[in-house]
Amino acid sequence: MAQKPSIPRGTRDFNAEEVAKRSYIMSVIKEKFELYGFQPIETPSFENLSTLTGKYGEEGDNLIFKILNSGDKVKKADVVALENGNLVRFSNSISEKALRYDLTVPFARYVVQHQNDFVFPFKRYQIQPVWRADRPANGRFREFYQCDADVVGSKSLFQEVEFIQLYDAVFTALELEGVTIKINNRKILSGIAEVIGAQDKLIDFTVALDKLDKIGGEKVKEEMRSKGISEEGISQLQPLFELKGDFGAQIERLKSILSTSEIGSRGIEELEFINTVIATLGLKTAKLQLDVTLARGLNYYTGAIFEVSAPESVKIGSIGGGGRYDDLTSIFGKPDTSGVGISFGLDRIYLVLEELNLFPETITEATKVLFISFGKQEAMMSLQTVSKLRTSGVKAELFPDEVTSGRQMKKQMTYANRRKIPYVVLVGEEELNSEMFTLKTMETGEQQTIDFDALLNALK
Protein backbone atom coordinates (compact mmCIF):
# COMPACT_ATOMS: atom_id res chain seq x y z
CA MET A 1 0.00 0.00 0.00
CA ALA A 2 1.33 3.47 -0.89
CA GLN A 3 2.60 5.50 2.03
CA LYS A 4 0.32 8.36 3.06
CA PRO A 5 1.83 11.68 1.93
CA SER A 6 2.92 14.24 4.52
CA ILE A 7 4.56 17.66 4.78
CA PRO A 8 7.68 18.67 6.77
CA ARG A 9 7.22 19.58 10.43
CA GLY A 10 6.79 23.30 10.96
CA THR A 11 4.96 23.81 7.64
CA ARG A 12 1.23 23.88 6.94
CA ASP A 13 -1.41 23.54 4.25
CA PHE A 14 -4.13 26.20 4.24
CA ASN A 15 -7.73 25.58 3.21
CA ALA A 16 -9.96 28.21 1.55
CA GLU A 17 -11.27 29.60 4.84
CA GLU A 18 -7.77 29.93 6.31
CA VAL A 19 -6.46 31.62 3.17
CA ALA A 20 -9.35 34.10 3.30
CA LYS A 21 -8.60 34.96 6.92
CA ARG A 22 -4.88 35.34 6.28
CA SER A 23 -5.62 37.53 3.26
CA TYR A 24 -7.84 39.70 5.45
CA ILE A 25 -5.00 40.33 7.92
CA MET A 26 -2.54 41.04 5.12
CA SER A 27 -4.96 43.43 3.43
CA VAL A 28 -5.40 45.43 6.66
CA ILE A 29 -1.63 45.60 7.21
CA LYS A 30 -0.99 46.52 3.57
CA GLU A 31 -3.62 49.28 3.68
CA LYS A 32 -2.00 50.86 6.77
CA PHE A 33 1.51 50.49 5.31
CA GLU A 34 0.45 52.44 2.25
CA LEU A 35 -1.50 54.95 4.33
CA TYR A 36 1.76 55.75 6.13
CA GLY A 37 3.65 56.21 2.85
CA PHE A 38 5.48 52.88 2.50
CA GLN A 39 6.13 51.42 -0.96
CA PRO A 40 6.08 47.67 -1.77
CA ILE A 41 9.13 45.69 -2.88
CA GLU A 42 9.90 41.96 -3.13
CA THR A 43 13.17 40.06 -2.87
CA PRO A 44 14.07 36.44 -3.81
CA SER A 45 13.12 33.59 -1.50
CA PHE A 46 16.80 32.62 -1.28
CA GLU A 47 19.98 34.67 -1.04
CA ASN A 48 23.68 34.01 -1.25
CA LEU A 49 24.70 32.37 2.02
CA SER A 50 27.35 35.06 2.55
CA THR A 51 24.59 37.70 2.53
CA LEU A 52 22.83 36.10 5.49
CA THR A 53 25.51 34.62 7.74
CA GLY A 54 27.01 36.72 10.51
CA LYS A 55 23.98 39.04 10.76
CA TYR A 56 21.84 37.26 13.35
CA GLY A 57 24.29 36.07 15.98
CA GLU A 58 25.45 32.51 16.49
CA GLU A 59 22.00 31.19 17.41
CA GLY A 60 20.40 32.85 14.40
CA ASP A 61 23.06 31.58 12.00
CA ASN A 62 22.36 28.04 13.19
CA LEU A 63 18.70 28.42 12.18
CA ILE A 64 19.39 29.37 8.56
CA PHE A 65 18.10 26.82 6.04
CA LYS A 66 21.01 26.18 3.67
CA ILE A 67 20.51 24.98 0.10
CA LEU A 68 22.74 22.08 -0.91
CA ASN A 69 25.02 22.69 -3.90
CA SER A 70 24.35 20.56 -6.95
CA GLY A 71 26.34 19.32 -9.93
CA ASP A 72 30.08 20.00 -10.04
CA LYS A 73 29.84 22.38 -7.08
CA VAL A 74 29.47 19.39 -4.77
CA LYS A 75 33.17 18.74 -5.43
CA LYS A 76 33.95 21.80 -3.27
CA ALA A 77 32.96 19.88 -0.15
CA ASP A 78 35.54 20.27 2.64
CA VAL A 79 35.90 16.58 3.56
CA VAL A 80 38.73 17.38 5.99
CA ALA A 81 36.43 19.65 7.99
CA LEU A 82 33.89 16.81 8.17
CA GLU A 83 36.54 14.35 9.36
CA ASN A 84 37.64 16.85 12.01
CA GLY A 85 34.09 17.33 13.23
CA ASN A 86 33.86 20.95 12.05
CA LEU A 87 30.26 20.65 10.84
CA VAL A 88 29.70 24.40 10.35
CA ARG A 89 32.69 24.71 8.00
CA PHE A 90 31.70 21.52 6.20
CA SER A 91 28.08 22.60 5.67
CA ASN A 92 29.25 25.99 4.38
CA SER A 93 31.53 24.24 1.89
CA ILE A 94 28.62 22.37 0.31
CA SER A 95 26.20 25.31 0.30
CA GLU A 96 26.46 28.73 -1.33
CA LYS A 97 22.81 29.78 -1.03
CA ALA A 98 20.17 29.77 1.71
CA LEU A 99 16.49 30.49 2.26
CA ARG A 100 16.04 33.97 3.73
CA TYR A 101 15.89 34.06 7.54
CA ASP A 102 14.10 37.41 7.68
CA LEU A 103 13.27 40.33 5.39
CA THR A 104 15.54 42.95 6.98
CA VAL A 105 18.96 41.72 5.87
CA PRO A 106 17.78 41.10 2.27
CA PHE A 107 16.33 44.61 2.39
CA ALA A 108 19.70 46.04 3.44
CA ARG A 109 21.26 44.20 0.49
CA TYR A 110 18.53 45.61 -1.76
CA VAL A 111 19.17 49.18 -0.57
CA VAL A 112 22.88 48.99 -1.38
CA GLN A 113 22.34 47.24 -4.70
CA HIS A 114 19.60 49.64 -5.90
CA GLN A 115 20.54 52.84 -4.05
CA ASN A 116 20.56 54.89 -7.26
CA ASP A 117 16.99 53.91 -8.11
CA PHE A 118 15.20 55.73 -5.25
CA VAL A 119 15.53 58.76 -2.96
CA PHE A 120 16.32 58.77 0.76
CA PRO A 121 14.72 58.44 3.19
CA PHE A 122 13.34 55.31 1.53
CA LYS A 123 10.18 53.77 3.03
CA ARG A 124 9.39 50.22 1.93
CA TYR A 125 7.13 47.38 2.98
CA GLN A 126 7.36 43.66 2.23
CA ILE A 127 4.91 40.82 2.84
CA GLN A 128 6.68 37.55 2.02
CA PRO A 129 7.54 34.18 3.61
CA VAL A 130 10.75 33.45 5.53
CA TRP A 131 12.25 30.18 6.78
CA ARG A 132 13.97 29.17 10.02
CA ALA A 133 15.26 25.75 11.06
CA ASP A 134 13.63 26.19 14.47
CA ARG A 135 11.97 23.64 16.72
CA PRO A 136 8.24 23.76 15.84
CA ALA A 137 5.89 24.73 18.68
CA ASN A 138 2.59 26.53 19.23
CA GLY A 139 2.82 29.68 17.15
CA ARG A 140 6.35 28.85 15.97
CA PHE A 141 6.79 27.53 12.44
CA ARG A 142 9.68 26.80 10.09
CA GLU A 143 7.96 28.57 7.23
CA PHE A 144 5.99 31.72 7.99
CA TYR A 145 5.14 35.13 6.62
CA GLN A 146 6.61 38.40 7.81
CA CYS A 147 4.96 41.74 7.14
CA ASP A 148 7.75 44.33 7.37
CA ALA A 149 7.97 48.09 7.06
CA ASP A 150 11.32 49.94 7.18
CA VAL A 151 12.71 53.43 6.69
CA VAL A 152 16.37 53.91 5.75
CA GLY A 153 18.25 57.17 5.44
CA SER A 154 16.83 58.99 8.47
CA LYS A 155 18.08 59.15 12.07
CA SER A 156 15.03 61.06 13.30
CA LEU A 157 13.30 59.55 16.33
CA PHE A 158 10.00 60.64 14.81
CA GLN A 159 10.32 57.49 12.68
CA GLU A 160 10.11 55.37 15.85
CA VAL A 161 7.06 57.39 16.88
CA GLU A 162 5.39 56.71 13.53
CA PHE A 163 6.04 52.97 13.81
CA ILE A 164 4.37 52.89 17.23
CA GLN A 165 1.41 54.71 15.67
CA LEU A 166 1.44 52.25 12.77
CA TYR A 167 1.26 49.29 15.13
CA ASP A 168 -1.64 50.97 16.91
CA ALA A 169 -3.44 51.70 13.61
CA VAL A 170 -3.24 48.07 12.45
CA PHE A 171 -4.42 46.55 15.72
CA THR A 172 -7.20 49.13 15.95
CA ALA A 173 -8.36 48.16 12.44
CA LEU A 174 -8.27 44.47 13.45
CA GLU A 175 -10.28 45.36 16.59
CA LEU A 176 -7.60 43.66 18.68
CA GLU A 177 -7.60 45.33 22.08
CA GLY A 178 -5.17 44.78 24.95
CA VAL A 179 -2.02 44.79 22.78
CA THR A 180 1.17 45.98 24.48
CA ILE A 181 4.03 47.56 22.52
CA LYS A 182 7.15 46.94 24.59
CA ILE A 183 10.11 49.22 23.95
CA ASN A 184 13.74 49.33 25.03
CA ASN A 185 16.99 50.70 23.60
CA ARG A 186 20.15 48.81 22.71
CA LYS A 187 22.20 51.76 24.02
CA ILE A 188 20.73 51.07 27.45
CA LEU A 189 21.75 47.42 27.19
CA SER A 190 25.26 48.52 26.13
CA GLY A 191 25.33 50.84 29.12
CA ILE A 192 24.30 48.05 31.48
CA ALA A 193 27.00 45.77 30.02
CA GLU A 194 29.50 48.59 30.56
CA VAL A 195 28.44 49.13 34.19
CA ILE A 196 28.78 45.42 35.06
CA GLY A 197 32.10 45.09 33.20
CA ALA A 198 30.80 42.85 30.41
CA GLN A 199 31.33 45.09 27.34
CA ASP A 200 33.21 42.30 25.57
CA LYS A 201 30.29 39.92 26.14
CA LEU A 202 27.50 42.24 24.98
CA ILE A 203 26.07 39.70 22.51
CA ASP A 204 26.09 36.86 25.05
CA PHE A 205 24.54 39.22 27.60
CA THR A 206 21.71 40.39 25.35
CA VAL A 207 20.94 36.91 23.96
CA ALA A 208 20.59 35.57 27.52
CA LEU A 209 18.58 38.57 28.76
CA ASP A 210 16.19 38.24 25.82
CA LYS A 211 15.07 34.86 27.21
CA LEU A 212 13.89 36.24 30.56
CA ASP A 213 10.17 35.90 29.76
CA LYS A 214 10.67 32.38 28.42
CA ILE A 215 12.96 30.72 30.98
CA GLY A 216 12.93 33.01 34.04
CA GLY A 217 15.58 34.94 35.94
CA GLU A 218 17.51 32.01 37.44
CA LYS A 219 17.97 30.24 34.10
CA VAL A 220 19.08 33.54 32.53
CA LYS A 221 21.71 33.93 35.25
CA GLU A 222 22.89 30.37 34.66
CA GLU A 223 23.32 31.09 30.95
CA MET A 224 25.24 34.29 31.70
CA ARG A 225 27.57 32.38 34.04
CA SER A 226 28.16 29.81 31.31
CA LYS A 227 29.18 32.66 28.97
CA GLY A 228 31.77 33.94 31.42
CA ILE A 229 29.91 36.89 32.93
CA SER A 230 31.12 37.39 36.51
CA GLU A 231 29.01 36.70 39.58
CA GLU A 232 29.50 40.30 40.68
CA GLY A 233 28.22 41.57 37.36
CA ILE A 234 25.19 39.27 37.50
CA SER A 235 24.33 40.48 41.01
CA GLN A 236 24.39 44.06 39.71
CA LEU A 237 21.65 43.09 37.25
CA GLN A 238 19.16 42.18 39.99
CA PRO A 239 17.53 45.66 40.04
CA LEU A 240 16.72 45.21 36.33
CA PHE A 241 14.82 41.99 36.98
CA GLU A 242 12.74 43.80 39.61
CA LEU A 243 12.22 47.12 37.77
CA LYS A 244 8.53 48.02 37.86
CA GLY A 245 6.24 51.02 37.63
CA ASP A 246 5.12 53.26 34.79
CA PHE A 247 7.36 54.50 31.98
CA GLY A 248 8.52 57.59 33.85
CA ALA A 249 9.31 55.78 37.10
CA GLN A 250 11.42 53.17 35.30
CA ILE A 251 13.30 55.89 33.41
CA GLU A 252 14.20 57.66 36.67
CA ARG A 253 15.50 54.39 38.15
CA LEU A 254 17.52 53.75 35.00
CA LYS A 255 19.10 57.18 35.23
CA SER A 256 20.46 56.22 38.65
CA ILE A 257 21.74 52.81 37.49
CA LEU A 258 23.38 54.19 34.34
CA SER A 259 24.65 57.51 35.68
CA THR A 260 28.27 56.59 34.83
CA SER A 261 27.55 55.38 31.30
CA GLU A 262 27.48 57.90 28.47
CA ILE A 263 25.98 55.48 25.93
CA GLY A 264 23.36 54.31 28.42
CA SER A 265 22.36 57.91 29.14
CA ARG A 266 21.88 58.54 25.39
CA GLY A 267 19.56 55.56 25.23
CA ILE A 268 17.51 56.96 28.12
CA GLU A 269 17.21 60.34 26.35
CA GLU A 270 15.94 58.65 23.19
CA LEU A 271 13.31 56.68 25.10
CA GLU A 272 12.18 59.79 26.98
CA PHE A 273 11.68 61.65 23.70
CA ILE A 274 9.63 58.84 22.13
CA ASN A 275 7.46 58.45 25.23
CA THR A 276 6.81 62.19 25.48
CA VAL A 277 5.69 62.45 21.86
CA ILE A 278 3.47 59.36 22.08
CA ALA A 279 1.91 60.68 25.31
CA THR A 280 1.07 63.90 23.45
CA LEU A 281 -0.34 62.19 20.33
CA GLY A 282 -2.06 59.32 22.13
CA LEU A 283 -2.79 55.75 21.05
CA LYS A 284 -6.24 54.33 20.24
CA THR A 285 -5.87 50.65 21.12
CA ALA A 286 -2.32 49.65 22.06
CA LYS A 287 -0.35 50.51 25.19
CA LEU A 288 3.32 51.56 25.19
CA GLN A 289 5.41 49.96 27.93
CA LEU A 290 9.10 50.21 28.82
CA ASP A 291 10.77 46.81 29.28
CA VAL A 292 14.47 47.12 30.11
CA THR A 293 14.98 43.36 29.85
CA LEU A 294 13.83 43.38 26.21
CA ALA A 295 16.91 42.62 24.12
CA ARG A 296 15.82 40.94 20.85
CA GLY A 297 18.79 38.75 20.06
CA LEU A 298 19.64 40.18 16.66
CA ASN A 299 23.09 41.73 16.33
CA TYR A 300 22.15 44.54 13.98
CA TYR A 301 19.94 46.57 16.35
CA THR A 302 21.63 49.71 17.72
CA GLY A 303 18.85 51.93 19.11
CA ALA A 304 15.18 51.52 19.97
CA ILE A 305 13.86 47.95 19.95
CA PHE A 306 10.21 46.89 19.90
CA GLU A 307 8.27 43.76 20.76
CA VAL A 308 4.50 43.48 20.61
CA SER A 309 2.62 41.26 23.04
CA ALA A 310 -0.87 39.87 22.47
CA PRO A 311 -3.63 40.43 25.05
CA GLU A 312 -2.88 38.60 28.31
CA SER A 313 -5.85 36.28 27.80
CA VAL A 314 -4.05 34.67 24.85
CA LYS A 315 -1.02 32.56 25.73
CA ILE A 316 1.25 33.08 22.76
CA GLY A 317 4.61 34.70 22.06
CA SER A 318 5.21 38.11 20.52
CA ILE A 319 3.08 39.12 17.53
CA GLY A 320 5.48 41.78 16.24
CA GLY A 321 8.87 43.34 16.75
CA GLY A 322 11.59 45.50 15.30
CA GLY A 323 14.03 48.29 16.02
CA ARG A 324 16.67 50.78 14.90
CA TYR A 325 19.79 49.63 13.04
CA ASP A 326 22.42 52.28 12.33
CA ASP A 327 25.01 50.26 10.48
CA LEU A 328 23.36 47.31 8.75
CA THR A 329 24.01 48.51 5.19
CA SER A 330 27.73 49.02 5.89
CA ILE A 331 28.25 45.25 5.70
CA PHE A 332 27.28 45.56 2.03
CA GLY A 333 29.45 48.63 1.37
CA LYS A 334 27.20 51.56 2.27
CA PRO A 335 28.16 53.01 5.70
CA ASP A 336 26.31 55.68 7.72
CA THR A 337 22.83 54.78 6.49
CA SER A 338 20.58 54.51 9.52
CA GLY A 339 17.41 52.49 9.36
CA VAL A 340 14.50 51.49 11.56
CA GLY A 341 11.74 48.97 10.96
CA ILE A 342 9.03 46.78 12.41
CA SER A 343 7.48 43.44 11.56
CA PHE A 344 4.02 41.93 12.09
CA GLY A 345 3.83 38.20 12.85
CA LEU A 346 1.03 37.18 10.50
CA ASP A 347 0.70 33.60 11.74
CA ARG A 348 0.52 34.51 15.41
CA ILE A 349 -1.87 37.39 14.77
CA TYR A 350 -4.07 34.84 12.95
CA LEU A 351 -4.04 32.53 16.00
CA VAL A 352 -4.91 35.44 18.31
CA LEU A 353 -7.84 36.64 16.17
CA GLU A 354 -9.08 33.06 15.84
CA GLU A 355 -8.97 32.43 19.59
CA LEU A 356 -10.74 35.71 20.36
CA ASN A 357 -13.27 35.20 17.52
CA LEU A 358 -12.42 38.55 15.94
CA PHE A 359 -12.58 37.60 12.25
CA PRO A 360 -15.53 39.25 10.48
CA GLU A 361 -17.96 36.61 9.22
CA THR A 362 -18.10 38.13 5.75
CA ILE A 363 -14.43 37.51 4.92
CA THR A 364 -14.95 33.76 4.51
CA GLU A 365 -17.88 34.16 2.12
CA ALA A 366 -17.06 32.56 -1.22
CA THR A 367 -19.74 31.55 -3.73
CA LYS A 368 -23.04 33.32 -3.00
CA VAL A 369 -25.29 31.22 -5.24
CA LEU A 370 -25.09 27.82 -6.94
CA PHE A 371 -27.15 27.11 -10.10
CA ILE A 372 -28.50 23.61 -10.55
CA SER A 373 -29.70 22.68 -14.03
CA PHE A 374 -31.63 19.75 -15.47
CA GLY A 375 -30.40 19.65 -19.07
CA LYS A 376 -28.20 21.29 -21.68
CA GLN A 377 -30.67 24.05 -22.57
CA GLU A 378 -31.28 24.79 -18.90
CA ALA A 379 -27.51 24.85 -18.34
CA MET A 380 -27.10 27.43 -21.12
CA MET A 381 -29.71 29.68 -19.50
CA SER A 382 -27.97 29.20 -16.14
CA LEU A 383 -24.56 30.07 -17.58
CA GLN A 384 -25.90 33.24 -19.19
CA THR A 385 -27.44 34.25 -15.88
CA VAL A 386 -24.26 33.39 -13.97
CA SER A 387 -22.29 35.67 -16.30
CA LYS A 388 -24.72 38.56 -15.73
CA LEU A 389 -24.55 38.06 -11.95
CA ARG A 390 -20.75 38.00 -11.99
CA THR A 391 -20.75 41.24 -13.99
CA SER A 392 -22.80 42.74 -11.15
CA GLY A 393 -20.31 41.50 -8.56
CA VAL A 394 -22.22 38.46 -7.31
CA LYS A 395 -20.12 35.33 -6.78
CA ALA A 396 -22.02 32.66 -8.71
CA GLU A 397 -21.31 29.28 -10.26
CA LEU A 398 -23.02 26.43 -12.09
CA PHE A 399 -22.84 22.84 -10.90
CA PRO A 400 -21.49 21.10 -14.03
CA ASP A 401 -23.45 17.85 -13.79
CA GLU A 402 -27.10 17.60 -14.92
CA VAL A 403 -29.74 16.42 -12.46
CA THR A 404 -31.46 13.27 -13.73
CA SER A 405 -32.51 11.70 -10.41
CA GLY A 406 -33.38 12.58 -6.81
CA ARG A 407 -30.06 11.11 -5.72
CA GLN A 408 -28.14 13.52 -7.91
CA MET A 409 -30.24 16.42 -6.59
CA LYS A 410 -29.38 15.44 -3.01
CA LYS A 411 -25.69 15.24 -3.96
CA GLN A 412 -25.76 18.80 -5.30
CA MET A 413 -27.62 20.18 -2.30
CA THR A 414 -25.08 18.48 -0.03
CA TYR A 415 -22.33 20.09 -2.09
CA ALA A 416 -23.90 23.53 -1.54
CA ASN A 417 -24.23 22.91 2.20
CA ARG A 418 -20.65 21.72 2.61
CA ARG A 419 -19.41 24.72 0.63
CA LYS A 420 -21.59 26.96 2.87
CA ILE A 421 -23.25 28.45 -0.22
CA PRO A 422 -26.27 30.37 1.12
CA TYR A 423 -28.48 30.25 -2.00
CA VAL A 424 -29.31 27.73 -4.71
CA VAL A 425 -31.14 28.47 -7.98
CA LEU A 426 -33.09 25.70 -9.70
CA VAL A 427 -33.45 26.00 -13.48
CA GLY A 428 -35.66 23.27 -14.91
CA GLU A 429 -37.98 23.04 -17.93
CA GLU A 430 -40.67 25.23 -16.31
CA GLU A 431 -38.16 27.98 -15.44
CA LEU A 432 -36.67 27.76 -18.93
CA ASN A 433 -40.03 28.31 -20.61
CA SER A 434 -41.10 31.15 -18.29
CA GLU A 435 -37.62 32.76 -18.07
CA MET A 436 -37.98 32.74 -14.29
CA PHE A 437 -35.77 31.33 -11.53
CA THR A 438 -36.54 29.30 -8.41
CA LEU A 439 -34.39 30.70 -5.60
CA LYS A 440 -33.89 28.53 -2.51
CA THR A 441 -32.48 29.88 0.77
CA MET A 442 -30.40 27.01 2.15
CA GLU A 443 -30.63 28.01 5.81
CA THR A 444 -34.45 28.07 5.94
CA GLY A 445 -35.40 25.93 2.94
CA GLU A 446 -37.70 28.72 1.69
CA GLN A 447 -38.24 28.84 -2.10
CA GLN A 448 -39.57 31.58 -4.38
CA THR A 449 -39.93 31.87 -8.15
CA ILE A 450 -38.72 35.28 -9.38
CA ASP A 451 -37.42 37.10 -12.46
CA PHE A 452 -33.80 38.17 -12.98
CA ASP A 453 -34.12 41.65 -11.48
CA ALA A 454 -35.63 40.26 -8.28
CA LEU A 455 -32.96 37.55 -8.23
CA LEU A 456 -30.18 40.13 -8.49
CA ASN A 457 -31.71 42.25 -5.71
CA ALA A 458 -32.10 39.22 -3.46
CA LEU A 459 -28.48 38.16 -3.94
CA LYS A 460 -26.97 41.66 -3.60
Helices, strands, pairings?
Layout: H1 16-35, E1 39-40, E2 46-48, H2 49-52, H3 57-61, E3 66-68, H4 79-83, H5 87-93, E4 95-99, H6 104-113, E5 122-131, E6 143-152, H7 158-173, E7 180-185, H8 186-195, H9 202-209, H10 212-215, H11 217-226, H12 231-236, H13 238-241, H14 247-257, H15 262-281, E8 287-290, E9 304-309, E10 320-325, E11 339-345, H16 346-355, E12 369-373, H17 376-391, E13 396-398, H18 406-418, E14 423-427, H19 429-434, E15 437-441, E16 447-450, H20 452-459
Parallel strand pairs: 1-5, 7-8, 12-13, 12-14
Antiparallel strand pairs: 2-4, 3-4, 5-6, 6-11, 7-9, 9-10, 10-11, 14-15, 15-16
Helix pairs in contact: 1-7, 1-16, 7-15, 8-15, 9-11, 14-15
Concise synopsis of the structure shown:
By secondary structure, this protein is of the alpha+beta class. Helices cover 42% and strands 18% of the residues. The chain folds into two domains: 279 residues, Bira Bifunctional Protein, Domain 2 (BirA Bifunctional Protein, domain 2); 94 residues, Rossmann fold.
Structure description:
The protein has 460 residues and is of the alpha+beta class. It has two domains: 16-44 and 106-355, BirA Bifunctional Protein, domain 2 (2-Layer Sandwich), CATH 3.30.930; 366-459, Rossmann fold (3-Layer(aba) Sandwich), CATH 3.40.50. Helices cover 42% and strands 18% of the residues. It has helices spanning 16-35, 49-52, 57-61, 79-83, 87-93, 104-113, 158-173, 186-195, 202-209, 212-215, 217-226, 231-236, 238-241, 247-257, 262-281, 346-355, 376-391, 406-418, 429-434, 452-459; strands spanning 39-40, 46-48, 66-68, 95-99, 122-131, 143-152, 180-185, 287-290, 304-309, 320-325, 339-345, 369-373, 396-398, 423-427, 437-441, 447-450. An eight-stranded mixed β-sheet has the order 1-5-6-11-10-9-7-8. Strands 13-12-14-15-16 form a five-stranded mixed β-sheet, sandwiched between helices. Strand 15 (437-441) and strand 16 (447-450) form a beta hairpin. Helix 1 packs across helix 16 and helix 14 (247-257) runs antiparallel to helix 15 (262-281). The longest helix is centred in the N-terminal third of the chain and has 20 residues, at 16-35. The protein starts with 15 loop residues before the first helix and ends with a helix. The relative contact order is 0.11. The model has no long low-confidence stretch (mean pLDDT 88).
